[in-house]
Every structure is written in C-alpha cells, then in structure tokens.
Amino acid sequence: MRWTDELFYILIFNCITGAIAYGLWILLKMNMARRKKLKYIYPMLGIVEAFFIFPIMYIYLKISTHVPGRHGMYYGTLFLPTPFIYHAQCVIAGIWIVGAVWNFAKYAFQYLKFQKVLEKSVSFRLPETEKNKIIQELGMKGNVELYQNYAVTSPIVIGWRQKKIIFPVREYEEKELTTILYHELVHIRQHILEMKKVGIFLKLIFWCNPMMNGLLRSIDMWGEIACDRYVCSETAYPYTAQEYYTVAVDGLEQSHLWMPKMVTGFRKKNNFKSRILQMKNYKKENDFKRIGGMTLVVFLCAVCTTTTFAAGEGFRAGYDRVFESTKVEIEEEVIEDTEYEEMFVPEQETIVSGELPDENPVEGNEEFQISTLESGTMFFAGTVYADRDQCIAICVNIMPAGQTVCYGIMTPDDKLWYVYAIDSGTHNFRISNSGNYKIFVKNVSTGDVDLEGGYVSY
C-alpha cells in the first residue's frame, strides 16, 4: 500500500475515532456537570484531542488483520482497491484537500489581519507588581508581558512561547486588575492556550467532521470554567466568587473585532451564562480527589479504545462487502515459457562463428552482443560452469520488434535446452548435473535480427 493510501486511511480512521471519543466525553460530562464534579471535565478534553491525533483504529486493523506472506504482510481484502473504491478515494481525498487548503488559507488571512491590529499595542506597566506576586503564588516560570490595545474590549491572552496579556485601554480598579490577572495567568499555567491551538489545528484538518465545531466550543467554554473554578477554589484570590463574576459582568465584551479562537477571553459573552450556571453551588470538597480523577481518565480511555476497536471491526466488515460487490475479475494472457530439449547435431546447424566456443567457463556474469544474426543461424555466446541444483539465467533483447529467437544452454552431453522469446526474454534453467554449459541463441525468424543479452550462474 502506498504512503498516500496509508495517510488517507489514517485521516479517515482518526476522524471516526475522535468523534467517538468526543461523543463519549459529552455523555460523561453531562453526568459530572449535573453532580457538580467539574475538576476533570476540561482535562479529559485532552484525551479527546489525543484520539483525533493518534492512529489507534488504523494500528488495530493493521495488527489484527495481517497475515505473514512471502512478500510482507497481507491484510485480506482490507485496503485492497477495486476500481469503484479507487475512484471513491480519489473523490473524497480531492474534496478533503481542497477544503483543508481553503480553511487554512482563510484562517491564516484572518489571523494575520488580527496580528496587524495587535502590533499597535502599547506596554502596560501599572499592574506589574501584582502580576509578579500572582506568578510566584502559582509557581509559574518565565515572564508574562502586559499590553494595552484600543481594538480589544475584553482582556485576552495570546502568544506561542512568549505569552502576552492584552488589556483594553482604560482605567482599572485594584479589584478588577487582580481578578483579571488571576484569571488570565491561570489560563497560562494550565496551558489552555495550547489546548485551543491543537483544537483549531484539528478543526482545519477534519473540517468535514460536523462535531469539530462542538469540540471547539467545548474547549472554549470548559477552559473558561476550569479557570473560574481554579481561581475561586485553588488560589489565594482575595475576593468572593460573587465579586469575581461581578467584575466579569461589568465589562462583557462589545467588540466586533474578529479574534482567533486560540486566544482566551475573560469577558466573552457567548458562554458567560453557562459559566455562572456551572459554578453555581460548586463545592471543592465534593469534587473528585486525585485517585477518583485518575480512575475517571482510565475509564474514558478504556471505553474509547474498546469502542474504537468495535468501530474498526464494523469498518472492516463494511469494506469487505463493498470489495466483494465491486471487485472486477481480470484475465491476463499467460506467456508460454516451456522448456524444450533436443540433441545437438552440428552438421544440421549453421553456426555464426563456424566453430563452438572453447571449454573454459567464465566466472560471474557475462554479456554478449551480435549484429545481423541471419535467419536459421545459431550463435554461441560462451561457456559457464554450474553445480547441481544451481541455475543459469539468460536474458536476450531482440531487434527489430516482433522477431523470434530460441535461446538456452547446451549440456555436457550435447543436449540443447531452450525456450522461445519474442522481442525479449529472460529464463532460468535449473541444472541437474554439475558441468560446463554453453550458452546459445538461434534466430528462428524469417529475417535478420540484432541481439544483446547476458547470462550468469547462481
């Protein structure tokens, strides 16, 4: 199977596997959110992304269906193409590539436009002391730069290696600054930006999967909830949860500026109501402890994996049915390669050189060439030694096209073993007795021919 086919099936299987994992995550999330156990909902989205990335179904099918053969591994009818399957693959791959390129180009254009807006940001030094105190409390390494920008109406976090917090340009009270810094720095500490970037990349690759929009919305909303929960329950945030959300409500974003989904937004209004409802009546002591969270993660991985294996078996069964219903039987013409045997009678043959070659065999392989071998004429190319059960391989090329020769070996007891060839030919003669064997070619066409070829014993 070609690498392009391998890549095609990996993408198809990963798309299915990721959709299975996301569907199971939704079921688990609904149960946990109802019971106010929120701590591990967002981290489990990382498992969903992993199932979109790692080719679990593909590896399973390759391992479970392979049969060792002479030329590698054989996988039954799985991955074998028929004309229908081949054309279907070409159509699907073409649509997929065009869509992926279009989505990448559109997103890149919008992101570059957004970056130009951010180039007008100015340094924001006012909350530097408070920022350093929170960074130290959270145990973070590295520096986080603070900026202000007139185009931003809600504080956001951007950046790849060097993270930046962009504030709207206005005056801030101490409570508001502290709340925003806690929220955005927790975003950075929990690597939520990286999770969003992976999600966006998967969305651009698997753009045809309708569940990808839901996955991005879940990453966005539950990333904000994870920060809300951590700030209000795990840090030394000096204010109450009610004051925390009051700060957010007072400055809900009103901007029409397009912002990439890979940025975070403390005051995003599209999921604010859901954030408040999820955090309502939340109590840290009722949430899962570490052992419970690890058990939950293992359970999700196990269920996703077994469901993926079952889906793989379903895909294989479906592929077999499609293969059987669309396969085409092809009849190939079998070229006769029969060996003939007869006694050599020198008086009945016209030998091109007028004499037989000497008895000294060549070592290794030898090439020969002759121009204008007349019709009915025999040419002896040389002598080669071969042991019992070895083979003598001979190849010939004939010009002009459409002409026929017979070629083969003469045994020590003067028997001719030969086969016929049109245009060209290659044949292996198995040796039954050790000795010196003469290589010959005879023109059996009605016209003259030119010859070139070679022979070797092995």
TrEMBL record:
Transmembrane region positions?
6-28, 40-61, 84-105, 291-311
**What are the boundaries of the signal sequence?**
none
> Which Pfam families would you find in this protein's record?
Peptidase_M56
Q: Which domain of life is it from?
A: Bacteria
Q: Which InterPro entries match?
A: Beta-lactam_resp_regulator (IPR052173), Peptidase_M56 (IPR008756)
Q: Where is the Peptidase M56 domain?
A: 91-234
CDD domains given in the database record: M56_BlaR1_MecR1_like
Q: Which UniProt keywords apply?
A: Membrane, Transmembrane, Transmembrane helix
According to UniProt, the name of this protein is Methicillin resistance protein
Name its species.
Roseburia inulinivorans
Upper classification of the organism: Bacteria, Bacillati, Bacillota, Clostridia, Lachnospirales
